Amino acid sequence: MDKHYHMKRLLILLILPVQMAFGQTGQVTLEECYKQARENYPKLSDLDREQQMNDLKVKNLNANWLPTVNLNGQATYQSDVTSVPVSIPGVNISAPSKDQYKVYIDLHQNIYDGGLTKAQKEVDAANTATDKQKLEVEMYSLNDRVNQLYFGIILMQKSHKVLELKKENIAERLRVLESGLKNGVVQARNVETLRAEKILTGQQIEEVDANRMAAIKSLAVLTGLTVDKNTQFQAPTIVQEDKDWQRPELKLYNQMENTIDKNADLIAKTRNPKVFGFGQVGYGKPGLNMLQSEFNSYYYVGVGVKWNIFDWKQSSRRREVLEIQKQMVNSSRETFKQNVNMALVQSSENIQKLESLISTDEKLVSIRDKVAAQSASQLENGVITSADYVTDLNAEIQARINLESRKVQYLQAIANYNTLTGNLSNN
């Protein structure tokens, strides 16, 4: 067999759809894995729970505008009571009883709270949005795990194909040498050497397949997708995106600053004047007329104002604390951006390096292929030993594995770059 036959076999193995090699049981894309990893994340439902909690808080705050009604009761005995120390002829003013009883309802109605309820709603909404965005940041980290598993599976698929090619090449050489052994023109050790190499190659294939299955099972747990050894994993077509960042961390920092601003506004609202109505309805002995020692019903209503006009600068200092916290959030944002920028520089350099190595790998594969083809011919003609042929064949196979590995690394490097910028929807 010449080198053109080997190249044809390799191209068939590399281009042949995976479903032809493993069976038709569906296919999976990288984008789908990104999506399903998020959908399958156990804490995703916390987004709805956060909203439910905020809705309950809003309902409680709305209750601030409903009247407060308290039922009270008391019975007392006192050592002395109010009396009129003046004697008026013909007029008898009896002193109230020393035992007194009262059952009454207190009423309180907010009329104007200085915007406090509205400000508290905005704080709660901002806190909810911040907690949701923290969860988004947490879930975004799943993309790195998807990249690692997905591209690892593709790499092992390609390694499997190249090793299968090696195994077929050895089998073809064995058929020729075994025929020569029967005719007494080939030494037995040459045959045994190839048989041993075939077994070794089979072990390598088993190891690659075992590692592939481990990665597939891990990806199944992560994404919840029904995948197995027969599932097709497509190598994505992706390009390096240099768009504006879409990282959820940036939205989180903005939301944290917004939360601080809402808290500062809430502090300011606590100083505003409040207007409220109040009243009491009751039945007791005595009623409002303390000079009547009998049970009577009564009521009174009124309007009150409350205004904290001086708090010894407590509100001012609390706002200063919030401003410092805001500065710290900004420092965290700038640190995050600096770290990502450094990672992007390294990632970009890695992409360029892989592009260059792929070019030289292709040249090396071409050279190794020619050498292996010549060795195959020389082996069949008895010019070299099987050990010499195996050495040249392994060099060719390793060169092909290196090439395919770097191609996958190149795709993964681009995926990692886009993960860093947050632009993932391009495959």
From TrEMBL:
Q: Which SUPFAM superfamilies match?
A: Outer membrane efflux proteins (OEP)
**Where does it live in the cell?**
Cell outer membrane
Locate the transmembrane regions by residue number.
none
Query: Which residues does UniProt assign to the signal peptide?
Result: 1-23
| Record PANTHER family | OUTER MEMBRANE PROTEIN TOLC
Name listed for the protein in its UniProt record: Transporter
Species for this entry: Prolixibacter denitrificans
What are the entry keywords?
A: Cell outer membrane, Membrane, Signal, Transmembrane, Transmembrane beta strand, Transport
Task: Provide the family line.
Answer: Belongs to the outer membrane factor (OMF) (TC 1.B.17) family.
